[in-house]
Amino acid sequence: MDNLLSMSDAKDEVFDILDTAADLKSGKIKEKPFKDKYLGMIFEKSSTRTRVSFEVGMNQLGGTPLYLSSKDLQLNRGEPISDTARVLSRFLDCIMIRAKKHETVEELVKYATIPIISGLTDKEHPCQAFADLLTIKEYKGDFNRKLVFVGDGNNVCNSLLLAAAYVGMDMTVSCPKGYEPDKEIYDRAKKAAEKTNATITIEEDIHKAVENADILYTDVWVSMGDEEEQEERERIFRPYQINKQLLSEAKSDAIVMHCLPAIRDQEITDEVMTSSQSAIWDQAENRLHAQKAILYHILKE
Ligand code: CP
Ligand code: NVA
After folding, report:
1. What's the CATH code of the domain at 108?
2. Is residue 1 a part of any domain in this protein?
3. 247 and 136 housed in the same domain
4. Which of 42, 44, 47, 283 to mutate to test the pocket of ligand 1 (most atoms within 8 A of CB)?
C-alpha cells in the first residue's frame, strides 16, 4: 500500500492490517520501529479521535507526530497544495490529512514523494473503516454478518461499503431517497462483493432493512461541510434514528456502532449509546490500534 485515500487502496491488505492491529492491541507486537520518523498531520476540519489516535499512536511506535492546522500553514494564505507537498516531502516521512475536498488529497499524492493517509474527506473515511472492522471482528468473531448502516450515505458509509465488500460482510444502507452513498463507490463495492459472496443493498424502508441485522451503524445527519442544509436534513432524516424500538427489530444480540461524534436524539438515543449492546466506546478505542496498524504497514514498507 503506497497511500491510503480510499479503502480500495488497502483491498489486498485488509486482513493483514487487521491482524497487525489485533497484535498491537494485545501487545504481541512490541517493537517501536519509527525512531527518527516524522508524521505530519494536516487538518482542514475539526477532529478529536483522528488527531489523538494518530498522535498517540505515532509516539507509541517510537516516531514523532506534528500537528499542522491548515489555518496556520501558508496554505491558508494561498500557497498551493502542490508546493506544500513538495516541501513537506523533504522534511517528513508520511502525511495524514483531513481535507474538505477529496481532490485536495489527490493533489497532495500527485506531488508528494512520501506516503499519504486520508484522515477523512467528503468522500471517504478509510481509517475509521479499519477501526470498525476490528471492532466487528472482536465482538462477532467473523464477518459472516449483516451490517445495516442507517442514515446518510456519507463518507463513513462509503468506506464501510468497500470494507464490507472486501471482507465478505453483507451490508445494507437504509437512507432517504437522494441521500444514497456515492454511486461509483457503491458500484465498486457491489462488484467486489461478488468475489467475496457478500450482499450489498440499499433499502429505504428502515424496518425492512434492520431485520436480521447483527450490527446497526449510524453517523450524524449533518456532516462537516453540510451545515447549510442542517434544517432540511434534520427533517428528512427524522425517521432514521437508532433507538430502543429499532434495535429490538434487529437480532437480539445485535451491536450498535457509531463513528462519533454523535448528536443524541437525532441519529441515536443516549439510551442506546450507553446500553449493553453498544460497541461504540470500544470502537472509538480501536481507532488507536487501527491507526497504528496503518502506519505500521505504510511506513515499514
Ligand atoms: N470518527 C472520527 O473521525 O472522529 P473525529 O472527527 O473526532 O476525528
Ligand atoms: N460524516 C462525518 C464523520 C465525522 C467523523 C463528517 O464528515 O463530519
Report:
1. 3.40.50.1370
2. no
3. yes
4. 47
Give me the amino acid identity at 100: K
Cα–ligand 2 centroid distance for 224 (angstroms): 6
Q: Is pLDDT of 226 > 70?
A: yes
Closest listed residue to residue 273, CA positions, set 238, 237, 243, 234: 243
What pLDDT is recorded for position 301?
Answer: 62
Catalytic residue among 49, 98, 233, 297: 98
Q: In whole angstroms, what is the distance from residue 269 CA to residue 101 CA?
A: 30
Can you tell me the distance from the alpha carbon of 54 to that of 91, in angstroms, rounded to the nearest whole number? 18
pLDDT value for 252? 98
Cα-to-centroid distance, 220 and ligand 2 (Å): 7
Residues 164 and 238 in one domain: yes
Closest ligand (CA of 48)? 1
Q: Is 49 touching ligand 1 by the criterion CB < 6 Å?
A: yes
- Contact criterion met (CB below 8 Å) for 135 and 282: yes
Provide the residue range defining the domain that includes 220.
127-283
Looking at the structure, do residues 169 and 273 belong to the same domain, yes or no? yes
CA of 219 to the centre of ligand 2 (A): 7
Quick one: which of 273, 179, 138 has its CA closest to 217? 273
Residue type at 198 in one-letter notation: A
- Please tell me the pTM assigned to this model: 0.98
**Minimal-distance CA residue to ligand 1 atom 4:** 49
